[in-house]
């Protein structure tokens, strides 16, 4: 009961990449031992762009299975599907009434996605950060793991919590960003100046954590490097820097140690060993995923149990909110 609460969610779009695993999900595993952790497949967030229904349903269950396969334990954390907890939508509407139009319009992701989806600039796209605030504030969250692209959204969550608290008296915990002690940024294999993205259309740019071994080896061997043939970590060697970062993350060895060992061994040997280390790291995850995704009934039972646990906490927060704003008790 004295542990702080952590909340994080992941959209069921694209594929869960090696970058997601190293940069975010591996930290979720550590946090479930230290905090009260609540993790969600945030399927409602995916609706801001058009989805093919059958594919979306498949992806939601796939991502849920992936989170379990990487080691998230429903006995140690709350793991659920966002749309199974209707309190998210109810609190979103209430928070909408305390969100200024200018605040929503200034969100960087709204501006970027509006440019990419000019034929579908919908209210959900603008309201995305308010739903994210509801996700966080529902559970009286103390800490939120965030990347650079989500800091602005967390700031809105903090602003809304403080605004509501100032109007009605303390109601919400004001969340703080969680900055992992160690975190590696994994870049695209074909464009190592940019982050590895789970929605990248170039399949050679990313490694899915359930890619088969031969595909992983192929992608690593095709990864962009340079013409120097010297393995070292320094400015101007983005491709080699990225592969060294990946090698270090999956092997537990330092970048300095690896750079020293492979400096003059050539890129072919280096890439081969990087690939083998990635395969060794991801094979157990792929095997566990295949077991889980084959048992839909089990996945749904775990998701329902997680949703029930999440709803109990969410309803407690909503009852407090309803009382503060003047709604009649149910």
Structure, explained:
- The protein has two domains: 5-178 and 296-325, HUPs (Rossmann fold, 3-Layer(aba) Sandwich); 213-290, Tyrosyl-Transfer RNA Synthetase (Orthogonal Bundle).
- Helices cover 55% and strands 7% of the residues.
- It contains twelve helices and five strands.
- It has a three-stranded parallel sheet with strand order 1-2-3. A two-stranded parallel sheet has the order 4-5.
- The two termini are 28 Å apart.
- The model has no long low-confidence stretch (mean pLDDT 91).
- DSSP strand (E) fraction? 5-15%
CATH class of the largest domain: Alpha Beta
In total, the number of domains comes to 2
The radius of gyration computed from the alpha-carbon positions, rounded to a whole number of angstroms, is 21 Å
Question: CATH topology of the largest domain, what is it called?
Answer: Rossmann fold
Question: What is the percent of helical residues?
Answer: 40-55%
* Envelope shape: globular
Mean pLDDT: 91
The second-level CATH architecture of the largest domain is 3-Layer(aba) Sandwich
Q: How many beta-strand runs?
A: 5
Return the string of H and E elements.
EHEHEHHHHEHEHHHHH
- Class computed from helices, strands and strand pairing: mainly alpha
Q: What's the end-to-end separation, in Å?
A: 28 Å
CATH level 4 superfamily of the largest domain:
HUPs
Q: In what order do the strands lie side by side in the largest sheet?
A: 1-2-3
Number of helices: 12
Poorly predicted sequence stretches spanning 5 or more consecutive residues:
none
The biggest sheet, with number of strands, parallel, antiparallel or mixed sense and barrel status, is: 3 strands, parallel
């Amino acid at each position: 009961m004295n542990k702080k609460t952590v909340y994080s969610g992941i959209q069921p779009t694209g594929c869960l990449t090696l970058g997601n695993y190293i940069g975010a999900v591996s930290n979720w595993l550590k946090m479930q031992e230290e905090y009260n952790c609540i993790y969600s497949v945030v399927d409602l967030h995916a609706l801001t762009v058009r989805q093919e229904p059958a594919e979306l349903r498949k992806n939601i269950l796939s991502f849920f299975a992936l989170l379990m396969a990487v080691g998230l334990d429903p006995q140690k954390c709350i793991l659920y599907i966002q749309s199974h907890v209707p309190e998210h939508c109810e609190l979103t509407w209430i928070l909408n009434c305390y969100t200024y139009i200018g605040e929503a319009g200034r969100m960087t992701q709204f501006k970027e996605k509006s440019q990419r989806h000019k034929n579908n600039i919908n209210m959900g796209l603008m309201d995305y950060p308010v739903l994210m605030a509801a996700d966080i504030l529902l559970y009286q969250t103390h800490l939120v793991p965030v990347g650079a692209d989500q800091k602005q959204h967390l700031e809105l969550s903090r602003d809304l919590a403080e605004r509501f608290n100032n109007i009605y008296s303390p109601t919400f915990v004001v969340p703080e960003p969680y900055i992992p002690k160690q975190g590696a940024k994994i870049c695209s294999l074909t464009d190592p100046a940019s982050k590895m993205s789970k929605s990248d259309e170039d399949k050679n740019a990313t490694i899915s954590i359930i890619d088969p071994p031969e595909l992983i080896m192929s992608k690593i061997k095709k990864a962009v490097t340079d013409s120097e043939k010297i393995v070292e970590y320094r400015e101007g060697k983005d491709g080699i820097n990225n592969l060294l970062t990946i090698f270090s993350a999956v092997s537990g060895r330092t970048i300095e140690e690896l750079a020293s060992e492979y400096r003059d061994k050539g890129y072919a040997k280096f890439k081969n060993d990087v690939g083998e280390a990635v395969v060794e790291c991801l094979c157990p995850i792929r095997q566990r995923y295949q077991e889980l995704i084959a048992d839909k009934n089990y996945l749904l039972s775990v998701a329902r149990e997680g949703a029930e646990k999440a709803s109990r906490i969410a309803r407690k927060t909503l009852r407090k909110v309803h009382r503060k704003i003047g709604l009649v008790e149910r």
